[in-house]
Each structure stands twice: as C-alpha cells, then as structure tokens.
Design a protein that fits this description.
The chain is of the alpha/beta class. It is 37% helix and 18% strand.
Length: 386
C-alpha cells in the first residue's frame, strides 16, 4: 500500500473504502485522475455554492497570499473587518458580533460555549436526525447512533426531540435550557425542511424559558435554499447563526454570529488561532461579493423549484417522496441509495447521500441550466434502471 493510500488525511476509520480521485475542478465540472470530466451535483456536501475554483475567489487568495497569509487575532486586519462588515450587512439588524473559526463544527462549539456562558445554564436541546459536527460538543448535539456510540460518554446535558414537533419543543425547553439548536433544513438527516410554524414555536419556546435559539446554517446558508439564509423563509430570527462550508468559496472558514445583547452577557473567553486569518477573509469577501452580485439565491430558488417539480414525477414504486428548498433537494427512495449513486457516477454525475435511502442534490448555484437539466435526466435514468 502506498503512503497516499494508507494516509487518509481528513478521514479516519474508513479503511477499505474505494474513492474516486478528483484532481481538478472548474465551475460545475470536476476531472478525475484519468481525465474524465464529471458534473458536480453534490457541491462537496454544500461547500461549492460558487462551483470549483471560482476565478474571483482564486484571485483574492493569490493576491492576499502575496501580502499576508496569517495574522494573530490580537491585531486589527482590514480584510477581516471588510469581510465581517459585508457578512453582517446581509443579516437582520439585530446581529452584530461575529466569531470567526475554521469550520462548521467549530462554529457550533462556539455557540454552545456562548449560550452556556450567557445564560448560566447547562442544557442544550437539539433535534432527532440533526447533524451538527463531529467534535465532542457538536457530536453531542448530533443524532446519529453510529457516529456517537464509539465516543461515549459525550458531553452531558444534551437532549434530543422529534423534528417538526412544536409540542416536543415546549416540553423540552425549560428553565435549565441554555440553547435550542436546530437546522432550518436537516441536510445530512435526509433533507427535511422545518415548517414555519415549527420555527415560530422554537422562537416562542426559548423566549418563554429565557434560553437562546441557534440556527445551524452551515449547509443551508449563503443562498442554498433560495434565500440568502434559510431562516428568511419563515421570518424567524435566531439569537445565534452558524455558518461555514461555502462562506469563503471553498476555503476553510466558520462563523458564529450573534447579537450585542448576547455578547454583553458572555463571561469567559473563546479563541481560534487561525480563525479570521487574512487568507480566509479575503476568500470570504470575494465569495460574498459574487453571491450578491450574481443573485445566486434567486437562481437557486428558480432552478430548485424546477428540479423538485420534475423529480416529483418519479414518486411511485421506486420513490417515496421528493422534498427540499431551493437547490437542496432530497429524493427518498424505497431502496438503498448507493446503487443509484454508482449509476450516476458511471454517467459522469456526482451526487451524495443523506442517509441510507435518500439521494441528496446540492449542485453549485452557478450550474448552467443545461447541465442541471442533464443532471435531472441522469437522476431519472439512474433511479429507473434500479
């Protein structure tokens, strides 16, 4: 076994798994090691909202790298200030302070610490089927038995309730609750959108109990669901907003955004050595400018609606349900999804799963309409061949 094959790098405990080697990307296309071009329908699990190696993000990284790659957070950074200002300008006026980190799981960890400190309470309520990350705090909020059990006991005082069940929220959120942590659309958990009534109930429950509400928009944020942020579909504004994945156009970054009132109640400190580094912030600033200028949220709504309407024609003997928002679409099969993913790959299209039976489609928001139509045709064929 070669060093490259034995050293997994970003994954551990995945021995024996065959991987397609991708060596280059541009826009919606990815090329494998043999030079075959593939159409990306999975956006690297939501990272690639702008596609692969967007030229403006690449240029921003190159220019910044020539000036300054890293700067400790104890110093002011013009590019960091510009990025934060751009991000906050996209949000409701209640938001202000931004803690920058390197990933989605770190943004969740920060939210847990902020909520426990600001409220003086220990309890965190999250949802069944939810996914929030794999570090110990975020994993404690995640509900997937196979991910949790090897590392138990996890962080105490985490409670899980059924998703889209307002009564369960009312019963669980009490005077010991620091944080209610929810995804506006459960992505890894099978692409389940929250109803507006459920999110309104969440807001009501935390207000009644004096707790804080956090929306994990690591996957759903930045135009993916047809709005700049998924919570805008319901009009329910959280106390903490968690972002990552596509925020810097593919460069690692995480953000925990909160309100001045919550920040004032925070006691203690939290820090990230590489969080808010100039390279990430330059990439993030460029990515946000492209996202806004090209109105990609509106594009996601249009293409997503067209995709869902078309895929709903598959509902029947092989497909149980089609659901989603914008360009985050789940096709729940009546069989395992792995063979469908393999057939799509054979045809030159790459998608991802959301559980054992759900095909998840999250193409880049910049996908050309022709490629999106071809991808939908490939999905229809791949399911029909089963």
């Amino acid at each position: 076994m070669s060093a490259a094959e034995s050293c997994r790098g970003h994954e551990f405990g995945e021995q024996g798994r065959r991987r397609l080697a991708i060596v280059r990307g541009k826009g919606t296309f990815l090329w494998d090691a043999e030079g075959r071009r593939r159409v990306d329908l999975g956006a690297s699990h939501g990272v690639g909202n702008l596609g692969a190696s967007h030229p403006e993000v690449v240029r921003a990284i190159r220019d910044q790298a020539a000036e300054l790659i890293h700067l400790g957070s104890g110093y002011a950074s013009p590019v960091r200030a510009a990025f934060v200002e751009k991000l906050v300008a996209l949000l409701p006026g209640s938001f202000g302070p931004v803690f920058l980190s390197n990933s989605g799981t770190e943004s969740v960890e920060a939210a847990i610490k902020i909520a426990r400190s600001a409220t003086g309470r220990p309890k965190v309520v999250a949802a069944l089927r939810g996914f929030h990350g794999r570090t110990l705090g975020s994993l404690s909020a995640t509900w997937r038995r196979e991910l949790r059990e090897p590392f138990e006991p996890l962080v105490p005082e985490f409670v899980h309730v059924p998703y889209n069940d307002p009564a369960a929220l009312e019963a669980a959120v009490d005077d010991r609750t620091a944080l209610l942590l929810l995804e506006p659309v459960q992505g890894e958990g099978g692409v389940h959108p929250a109803s507006p009534a459920y999110l309104r109930a969440a807001r009501s429950a935390v207000d009644r109990a004096g707790a804080l509400l956090a929306f994990d928009e690591v996957q759903t944020g930045l135009g993916r669901t047809g709005r700049m942020f998924a919570f805008q579909h319901s009009g329910v504004v959280p106390d903490l907003l968690l972002l990552a994945k596509s925020l810097a156009g593919g460069f690692p970054i995480g953000a925990t955004v909160t309100t001045p009132e919550v920040e004032q109640r925070f006691r203690g400190t939290h820090h990230s050595t590489f969080g808010g580094n100039p390279l990430a912030c330059a990439a993030g600033l460029a990515a946000l400018e492209v996202l806004v200028r090209e109105r990609l949220a509106e594009r996601a709504e249009l293409l997503g609606r067209r995709g869902i309407e078309r895929l709903e024609g598959l509902v029947g003997p092989k497909v149980r349900e089609v659901r989603g928002l914008g360009l985050l679409i789940g096709v729940e099969l009546r069989e395992r999804v792995a063979p469908v993913l393999a057939r799509l790959e054979e045809e030159g299209f790459l998608a991802v799963a959301a559980g054992a039976t759900v095909l998840r489609l999250l193409p880049p928001l910049v996908i050309p309409e022709q490629q999106w139509d071809l991808g939908l045709e490939a999905v229809e064929r791949s399911i029909g061949r089963g």
